[in-house]
Specification:
heterodimer, A: mainly beta, six-stranded mixed β-sheet, B: four-stranded antiparallel β-sheet
């Protein structure tokens, strides 16, 4: 079946540090991959997406590359800000079967 | 992208009463909507898939008689928590998605049962 495994948190970084949150997936066929962000008390917002192998999704300085050979979609940002503190979810959609990772809480300290 | 509106954003109810949460797809006709539950500091747990004009499909372990889902039109799905108890207190989120596209989420409903 379809599933997502995500790096466990919490992750605490200083401002301007480099961020990596690992995500790997299991799926049949060719799923679309996503990163969502959730701020306290809110629903999930799409951060970025990639729909086929080798696609790179990017938004707000965040990037993730769809790696079919390693079934991965790791999230990276070169220099985090305090405002990036949130919970990040990796997800896949395989023919309307949407699956989420466990979420990684990121705290960025000034 | 699709805009999903969820109402109310928060509700407090007494134990034993029922609460209805609405999820509206404002600019997309959604034959399928999804309901999730999220406990503090945890991930989303899919509760059920709401199908327009037919019965919802519940995930294993979710009580269908307790969490009533109605999807009477292409733009509205409702989740009713019946005979609510404190352990039902949680954050409930709905979403709309189709094919292999991204999901669009409502803003969530914080339910507190006292």
């Amino acid at each position: 079946g379809n599933s997502v495994t995500q790096m466990e948190g919490p992750v605490t970084l200083s401002e301007e540090a480099f961020l990596t949150i690992n995500c790997t997936y299991t799926a049949t066929g060719y799923p679309s991959l996503f990163w969502y962000v959730q701020y306290p008390g809110e629903g999930l917002q799409l951060l970025l997406k990639a729909t086929k192998a080798d696609d790179k999704g990017s938004n707000k300085g965040f990037e993730a590359t769809y790696r079919k050979e390693t079934t991965s979609f790791h999230l990276e940002k070169g220099s985090v800000q305090v405002s990036d503190s949130a919970v990040y979810f990796c997800a896949l959609n395989n023919n309307n079967d949407m699956r989420f990772g466990a979420g990684t809480r990121l705290t960025v300290k000034p | 992208g699709a805009v999903v509106s969820q109402h109310p954003s928060w509700v407090i109810c007494k134990s034993g009463t029922s609460v209805k949460i609405e999820c509206r797809s404002l600019d997309f006709q959604a034959t399928t909507m999804f309901w999730y539950r999220q406990f503090p500091k945890q991930s989303l747990m899919l509760m059920a898939t709401s199908n327009e004009g037919s019965k919802a499909t519940y995930e294993q372990g979710v009580e269908k008689d307790k969490f009533l889902i109605n999807h009477a039109s292409l733009t509205l799905s409702t989740l009713t928590v019946t005979s609510a108890h404190p352990e039902d207190s949680s954050f409930y989120i709905c979403s709309v998605s189709w094919g292999a596209a991204e999901a669009f989420f409502g803003q969530g409903t914080r339910l507190t049962v006292v």
